[in-house]
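CORE FACILITY INTAKE
Project code: CF-77B
Contact: R.S. (postdoc)
Sample description: multi-component assembly, two entities in total
Requested service: structural model of the whole complex
Turnaround: standard
Below are the sequence entries exactly as provided by the requester. Do not edit them.
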Amino acid sequence: MTDAAGLLSRTRELLAAHPPATTDRTDFLRARFDAGLAWVHYPAGLGGVGAPRSLQAVVDAELAAAGAPGNDPRRIGIGLGMAAPTILRYGTDEQKRRFLRPLWVGEEVWCQLFSEPGAGSDLAALATRAVRADDGDWIVDGQKVWTSSAHLARWAILIARTDPDLPKHLGITYFLCDMTDPGVEVRPLRQITGEAEFNEVFLTGVRIPDAHRLGAIGEGWKVARTTLMNERVSIGGARLPREGGMIGPAARTWRERPELRTHDLHQRLLTLWVEAEVARLTGERLRQRLVAGEPGPEGAGMKLAFARLNQEISGLEVELLGDEGLLYSDWTLRRPELVDFTGRDAGFRYLRSKGNSIEGGTSEVLLNIVAERVLGLPVEPRNDKDVAWKDLSR
Amino acid sequence: MNSTTSTVSPTETPGTAPDLLYSEAEDDLRAAVRSLLTDRADVPAALVRAEAGDPYDSGLWTALAGGIGAAGLLIPEKLGGQGASHREAAVVLEELGRYVTPAPFLTGAVAATETLLACDTDSAAVADLLESLATGGRVAVLAVPLATAPDESLPTGTGPVAGVAEAARADILLVLRDDGLYAVGTEEPGVAVEPLTPLDLTRPLATVTVDPGAGTRIAGPATAGAAVRRGLLAGAGLLASEQLGVAEWCLEETVRHTRERHQFNRPIGSFQALKHRMAQLWLQVVSARAAARNAADALATGSPDAPLAVAVAQAYAGRVAVHAAEECVQLHGGTGMTWEHPAHLYLKRAKADEIALGTPGHHKQTLARLTNLPAPR
């Protein structure tokens, strides 16, 4: 049942029982989840059948050919990429049953309440407090920042400090936070693009039941590392055709607008074209290694490569456009539903891509990770490991 | 900003993606070559020999060419070769690059051999020549300057040709003339091979002069030019694997050194300023590996994408090898400047390889043509 042929017949049974043409979209997605065809590598009963992850493509192709509706992975990216694998690994049976199905179907959007104004790259320095009440519930107070989808989200993964007397990595606990609870306030955070793609989230006396704690008290950092590892896997993991990334629009503009060409821009464009093609091949090699069951360390570098390329290519594109590069599409404050890296115009791409080397781990932090975990270089001496969080300077 | 998005990407047709991994057979071949080079390739000894004007270790070449069968990798079994492909030859070059081994593999077993394979292999002259090359008993090289790119104009006629790589080690020169391709024995009368002083001590250069009457014609004018271009294309594509090997050694050695070298009471490899440089270099090396594998696979499968894959690999990998060697010298401090430490041999090989078979700039101009990204008028 968990080989390609078994999955294919299971998919055909699903399609026969729920013809896409006459079935409501949400109903179809629920049925697909219940048939174990949502994410086939998940356990039975939780949207999967415990099949190899690579066989998902078999199911997806069959469903696409039948015109079946899909969930919108961009809209629920944080839930799919970060919340789900963490809940699967650390959640109780009750939590898995409650949360995974509406997450996958897209009925419940998730956001991530990790970063704080004083805890970005040094995430474990976070100051949001969770204090145990007499009835066992947790009372949460603090402020989070850079939270995409918070204005759409029903649920959040949240890390908060539960013991300030311990060193910073040890006194943290991981929670699932109901964004509709009293005390949760989401405020748009306007960015350099003019949009408010992200939010600030203020937590004031928010009451979280202990049943929504994920993992043991004080083990939140360990749980969060699962989330963060999955975040980096999901960035840069897409399979691209040649010119499939940000080099595409720049190359098209070059071909269509000969009057814009200069020798200087030509040299730089060709250099970036080569680097974009090589980055694409490196991603493809990483994907092939994953499929072959030998995950390579290249993943740690892909986000670095794409961040730099996106920034350099979009910068070149604005310059190529000359007079038009001086203009911008629209500064109106909007709150988009989706993160949009490549849409709109070159000016937007240029400004938005500045975030690519910050979000999901800054390039500087990722270089440290490569240096220490891939190359085995020694860590820098640090003075925060054995000090109680409350005694750290800030 | 804690956002993630999985971009929705157009899907490629299955089955058209290049195989960028190493097969088990390729891993075995790598292990055999590495074991031989670990035992036999002595970099300081090669340096001493190079100063005396002849860097080659003939025993090592015999073991590599005949013992492992490296010389005949690209040659079909019916002509006495291994019937392997460019993918295997690329793995050998990675290892030769790691040891900056003076051996006429790239010039002989790849570029010259590929040229001959593009000629009429049913003709006795071509077949006999290939059979003698397959064992490593004889070595042929192309009588064109090492700097020649696959799509550049080729030297014909009888004038001296400068900068021919490994001509001094060769038994046969493949000489392009207006009326075809000639195989000329270096011992024949009318042939002069005058050594030059090369930047890269481990890949000697010479000026070659061949009298008009010398040699045997092995291809007519209709095939000769295209055959040489095919040889140069294979050479350029697989040179990226040699460059990868050079870069890999430089990175590994630099990481090892900076972990052990202490200054300011801690290993210098713990300073972020150095760690970030090595991490950037690592990313370039894994990227060069993908580009080199792509070129080798495209050549092996005869893909119409091969000229583009080769140009991408050559526009990228040469710069990476030079950067790696330059970082190796710098991060070794004063030691990296010494004649005793092998870093300079890698720097010299990397810089010479950057020019060999077309500079990165030349390959980018090739790409401008292949990708329809033309220069301004």
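Facility notes:
- The first helix of chain A runs from residue 4 to 17.
- The longest strand of chain A covers residues 198-208.
Invoice: internal transfer
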